[in-house]
Amino acid sequence: MAKRLFSLTLLLVQPALVHPASGLFPPTAPISPAPQICPQRFALLIGDASEITALVSQSLRSTDWTIAHAPDNASGFALAKNFPFDLVLTSPESSGHEDVLLLRQLRRILPRIRMIILARDPTPRDVVASIREHAFSYFSQAYSPQSLAEMLRWAGAKNSWDDGIEVVSASLEWIRIKVRCDLDTADRLTQFMREWIGVLPAPEREAFALAAHEILLNAIEYGGNFDPRNSVDVSFLRTHRMIEARIADPGRGFRLDAVPHAALSNPESEPARHVSYRLEHGMRPGGFGILAAKLSVDELVYNEAGNEATLVKFLHPFNSFPS
Predict the structure, then answer these.
(1) What is the DSSP letter of 256?
(2) Strands 231-238 and 242-248
(3) CA 272, CA 247: separation in Å to the nearest integer?
(4) By the 8 A CB rule, do 132 and 97 touch?
């Protein structure tokens, strides 16, 4: 009996082995392919802050995520030895230095892991170290829940990724970076720079970060053509008197008086003329980037070719920087 059941099983799971013309089977409708099963992915949440737990659960609401918890970094590393975590969110109670050390350990066993660092009392040194170790993002305790949720969704949306941010040189006062020409990488860099600047009051820091972000997006779109094979050179400089950003793209540049798709070129009598131009030429909504950036900083200067911009924000009163 066991032998007959075994033969029947073969017949049911391998009907294609019998030719339809043999008459052994009546004609049937084509068999639909089996649904694709998403691989299970694992996220590790370190710490026990209830509001962060709820934020992570909501941001990674997809059913293919399993979220594990660990009370501290040491326990988290022990768990990572047994589970192939794709994403780690650190505790806001740990320091940036401690989290960078954890990331360095995790890289040895999980080379493609994405870590978002939540840290108390961030320092420029820790932010630079996190970029060098290819953290996915970095937030201080004064983070925006909306910004963190968005970063979690970006980190969880990609099954695989490469970093796209390369530190060319870095000190506490001056950092130079190569940035891949895609929007997600630009957003990640902007968050790192919010934390690296640090010294400005929150509203001014946000205004400067957004101004640099707008010029960076222009460089990626018009200079780099959204081609991830291209990169944009970005430098941030901090002194006791000012903060400066320099953004240079690989394109041919432009003239500020010859950009009809930008709000900056609108005559006073037609403050929205560029909107009609963008619609007529099939361009995405926008065009306010350069104007918004110019209004958010003290100086915005382009080079002669129009493919490199410098933004300056003066500090009043003069500030000292943390190390």
Answers:
(1) G
(2) antiparallel
(3) 27
(4) no
DSSP string, 154-207: HHHH-SS----EEEEEE-SSEEEEEEESSHHHHHHHHHHHHHHH-SS-HHHHHH
Residue 149 shares a structural domain with residue 198? no
- Same domain membership, residue 181 and residue 153: no
Within 10 angstroms of residue 156's Cβ, the number of other Cβ atoms is: 20
Half-sphere exposure of 225 (CA within 13 A, CB side): 6
Q: What residues have CB less than 8 Å from 238, skipping those under 6 apart? A: 124, 172, 173, 174, 197, 199, 244, 321
- pLDDT per residue, tens digit, the chain (323 aa), is 444 333 323 233 333 333 434 443 344 444 445 444 556 889 999 998 778 888 888 888 766 788 999 999 999 999 999 989 999 999 999 999 999 999 999 999 999 999 999 998 888 899 999 999 999 999 987 788 899 999 999 898 865 566 899 999 999 899 999 999 999 999 999 999 999 987 677 888 889 999 999 999 999 988 999 999 999 999 999 988 999 999 999 998 876 565 665 555 555 555 555 556 566 656 655 556 677 788 889 999 999 999 999 999 998 765 555 55
Q: How do beta strands 114-119 and 87-89 pair?
A: parallel
Q: Which domain holds residue 136?
A: 40-162
- Within this chain, do residues 151 and 216 fall inside the same structural domain, yes or no? no
Residue 7 lies in a domain: no
Domains identified in the chain, total number: 2
CB proximity list for 319: less than 8 A, separation 6 or greater:
199, 200, 240
Question: Residue 14 falls within a domain, yes or no?
Answer: no
With a CB cutoff of 8 Å and minimum separation 6, the contacts of 284 are: 278
CATH value at residue 156: 3.40.50.2300
3-state secondary structure of 318: coil
* DSSP letter string, 53-99: HHHHHHHT-STTEEEEEESSHHHHHHHHTTS--SEEE--TTSBHHHH
Contacts for 60 with CB less than 8 Å, ≥ 6 apart: 43, 67, 87, 152, 153, 156
